[in-house]
C-alpha cells in the first residue's frame, strides 16, 4: 500500500510556522508516493530527533527529510536520506516512541503542510552547520537551515 505526500518541497519563502491556509496555492507539481515502511521511518526519525519539540518540531524534521528527497543534492528516497552517512545520528533507532503527536505531524505532512526549503537542522547551541547552510530560524532547541545562496 502506498501513501501520497503532497506539499511544498523547494523554492518558496521560509516560514516560521507550517503552511496552512495557503497550502492549496503551493502544492507540488507531482505527489510523492510513500510506502507504509517509509511513513514508519519518517515517524521514527521525527520522534527520535524531536520528541521533546511536539508536533511542530516533528513536522520540521519530516520536512527536512522530504526537502532533501526533492533536492538534487541528496538521495531521492526517504530511506536513503535518513540513512545517509553522518546525517541523522538517530537513524535506525527502533526504540523511538510513536506517539499520537508524531502521527499528527505525519498527517499534516500528508495534507501538504510542511516547512519549505529547510534542508538541515542541529541543536541550537552547536552552530556547526553555519559554514554549510544559511540559518533560517530556531524552534525549541534546534536551529533549522536552508541552502546557502
Description:
With 149 residues, the protein is an alpha+beta fold. The protein has helices at residues 36-50, 54-70, 78-82, 100-110; strands at residues 2-5, 32-35, 120-123, 133-139, 142-147. It has one domain (30-147): Orthogonal Bundle (Arc Repressor Mutant, subunit A), CATH 1.10.10.2520. The longest helix has 17 residues, at 54-70. Mean pLDDT is 77; it is low at 1-30.
The number of helical elements comes to 4
Secondary-structure-derived class: alpha+beta
Query: What value does the Rg take, in angstroms?
Result: 14 Å
Can you count the beta strands?
A: 5
CATH topology: Arc Repressor Mutant, subunit A
State the name of the first-level CATH class: Mainly Alpha
Main pleated sheet: 3 strands, antiparallel
Could you tell me the mean pLDDT?
A: 77
What is the ordering of alpha helices and beta strands? EEHHHHEEE
Please report which band the strand proportion falls in: under 5%, 5-15%, 15-25%, 25-35%, 35-45% or over 45%.
15-25%
Shape: globular
CATH architecture: Orthogonal Bundle
Question: Characteristics of this structure?
Answer:
about 150 residues, Arc Repressor Mutant, subunit A, three-stranded antiparallel β-sheet, two-stranded antiparallel sheet, disordered N terminus
List the SSEs and their pairings.
Elements: E1 2-5, E2 32-35, H1 36-50, H2 54-70, H3 78-82, H4 100-110, E3 120-123, E4 133-139, E5 142-147
Antiparallel strand pairs: 1-2, 3-5, 4-5
